[in-house]
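Q: How would the structure tokens look for this protein?
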Amino acid sequence: MRRLPLERERSTWDEWVAALLTARGRDAALASLISRVDGWEPWCAEARARRLSGAIWTAIRDEGLQAAIPAGAAARLEGQWRQSVAASALVHLDLSQIGAALDKEKIPWALLKGPSVADILYSDPGSRPMSDIDILIRPHFFRKSLDVLAEEGWRLREDMIPEYLRITHAVMLKFDPCVAMLEVHWNLLGTVPLPGEDVLWDGLERMEIAGRAVPVLGAADSALHLALHAVLHHGLKEASHLLDIALAFARLDREGWGIVVDHATRLNVVEELLAALDAAKRRVGFAAPEQIVRVLKQRRPGWLRRRATALALADSGGHAAMTLSRLIMMDGWENKGRYLDFVLMPPREWLRKVDSGSGGGAYSRRAFSGIGRALVQMFRARRAS
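A: Here is the predicted structure in token form.
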């Protein structure tokens, strides 16, 4: 059995985010990090790749530290910041047009992340880059929404192959004149709907974006979604996700934290939330209220879900592992053997076992549900490519 790295080491980029979050003495923390940069050209490129250049430049400018960095690096960071400002304006315009089309057809939808995060959590429009638009659609309106969006010029991206569509929770659309991609979700995070997702719809709020009232997740649900997205889709790899998480949870009051605990419990995502809060504390210095953490720990799930969360944080196959862990709960443990094996062994080894039939009847084609078969097909397609 392989050992899984449950904790990621604190990186230099975590230190930059911790400095950005510092309430007092931020100028000193930033100055110390600036003095340690060895090679500004590659540093600027990596800061942009990690989606932190805009936030760092805004902080450097606000603290009056431009003279502490080379003129070329300052110009490059400012240029990246300006590009983020321009991209943000285009995303806001695209979103306004998309919202108008969906509202006209009375399709229930909500904005996820993007402008609803950038406009609220960051004081500067260039601090958080945006490359796509994420919206959530009520499942039974999903096909109608694609038809409506197609009339506006949005088409499925070429890599949306049938095997992928059977196992995913969203599709990517593109519109050639637009820079941003449009990601349309019919479930919040995975192929299997989270139990009790309706609580998110019940708590929607309205936010003005590009002159239009756009439905968005409430503050508590938005923070919860950012944490879950960082865990399940990115394995908490990037410091930029921890910056979003820290800023989103920092603005919650007692009532907001109560909603987070209640909804995390209803959605059965307590373990994922704890993983995100733990990473935020260890790596960037944001600490959730101790009482909240204690309550969440009392509501932790069983060993298998915790193991699957560990795999999600350690392996690119983690999203599939979380899907299977939810299937275990839905199946009432009827097929726990093959699912348990998937959580414990590397995905490639599991797939070889399925391909060869060496696992016996539990791994036969007939034994898998439709979702399970789609998962196998997706893995085969990815392995072939």
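The radius of gyration is 22 Å.

The CA atoms of residues 83 and 95 lie 18 Å apart.

Upvote if useful.
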